[in-house]
Design goal:
The chain is an alpha+beta fold. The protein is 26% helix and 12% strand. Strand 9, helix 7 and strand 10 form a beta-alpha-beta unit. Helix 1 packs across helix 2. The structure holds zinc ion.
Length: 360
């Protein structure tokens, strides 16, 4: 059904670009012009294959995704209609583990924001990253004691933690439990970065005593004043996942943080109407495997791909002529783990970091 829908969209697009195609067909196929966010944004279910991330956090996709259940004993998923509670099984397992550890630390439970679309890829709205199943947003608002209705989860506002003028944390709202939650998230070896508003980074720099080594992973970034963003490294079985450059070894509280409290990062965008990367990205811009990820069969249902602990098994719904994902470097996938270990450290490989501006 999804394939049919996609073909439908494809033919609409083809019609829309018909004139263009007539003139440019000889140069490049019209299909290359499909906007990746439309295709990935329409996916309702993951690719039911072994878990694998392709490309980079802000330019890629993933297969073998699983969903975190809408409710758990220590979490609730927010904005459920967005269908962004999908991730690499290692990511989902880690979010669940964080929720349990956080409760043990005295945080009432997690409100979970966007993780990824079922097959990742660029999104129709928001987020430059979250494309390969290894990013998750966690609200800085503690979970209420009662389950929120689905309607409430769509409309409830998160707590703004930072003064938008001074870029400093609102002291009346910040608690030591917030600090403990971020420290816990940073404590996991597979977590490489945690993105927070510069005001939150400064608050931690100014107040954390004793062990400050974890501050290295806490990275200031625009936004992230209602939620923090937890990013894990490329997982085993994903040879074509591009690692992000390692964070510097120091706590990041010096000069780089001071820059955020100058005028420069907050100057108005000179070209606010310029299209964002996600509006321009076509399938030709993504790793070539992402076409196969789009075309791969899905599971029989959402429930069949919902993570309930242990080793999730992605089982494809019966479908004729199911295309298989392209083979990657033989040695890279030969040892694909039957069980994803959420606690495997990832190698730190230097790859240039894209520097998106606000609004992404
Ligand atoms: Zn995020």
């Amino acid at each position: 059904m999804e394939t049919a829908m996609r073909l439908g969209k494809r033919s609409q697009l083809a019609a829309a670009f018909g004139l263009l195609a007539l003139t440019s067909l000889a140069v490049r196929p019209a299909m290359a012009e499909e906007r990746a966010k439309d295709l990935f944004g329409a996916m309702k279910l993951p690719a039911a294959t072994a878990p694998q991330s392709f490309g980079f956090y802000s330019k890629g996709c993933f297969a073998g995704g699983v969903a975190i259940p809408m409710d758990g004993p220590t979490w609730q998923v927010m904005r459920p209609s967005r269908n962004r509670r999908w991730g690499h099984p290692a990511m989902i397992a880690l979010v669940e583990k964080l929720s349990r550890d956080a409760v043990a630390d005295g945080w009432p439970g997690l409100l979970i924001g966007d993780i990824a679309q079922p097959r990742g890829g660029p999104m129709l709205t928001g987020h430059a990253s979250h494309q390969i199943g290894l990013d998750a947003d966690i609200w800085l608002t503690p979970m209420p004691g009662r389950p929120l209705s689905m309607a409430r989860r769509e409309t409830m506002s998160a707590t703004l933690m930072v003064d938008e003028k001074t870029h400093l944390v609102k002291d009346a709202r910040w608690t030591s439990a917030h600090t403990r939650l971020l420290k816990r998230a940073a404590s996991y070896p597979e977590v490489e970065r945690i993105l927070v508003n510069p005001g939150i980074k400064k608050k931690l720099c100014d107040t954390v005593r004793g062990d400050r080594s974890w501050l290295r992973k806490i990275r200031p970034f625009w936004g992230h004043d209602y939620h923090f963003h937890m990013r894990i490294g490329c997982q085993p079985g994903s040879p074509n996942c591009k690692a992000q450059e390692a964070t510097p070894a120091d706590d990041g509280c010096g000069k780089p943080l001071a820059w955020w409290f100058t005028q420069e990062p907050w100057r108005p965008n000179k070209n606010p109407d310029a299209p964002k990367a996600r509006d321009l990205m076509t399938m030709a811009n993504l790793p070539r495997e992402c076409r196969a990820v789009l075309d791969a069969p899905g599971p029989a249902s959402v429930e069949a791909a919902t993570y309930h602990g242990g080793a999730p098994v992605a089982v494809a719904a019966p479908e004729p002529e199911a295309p298989s994902l392209p083979a990657t470097a033989a040695s890279g996938t030969a040892g694909l783990p039957g069980m994803v270990n959420a606690f495997t450290a990832t190698p730190e490989i230097g790859v240039p970091v894209p520097r998106p501006r606000p609004g992404n």
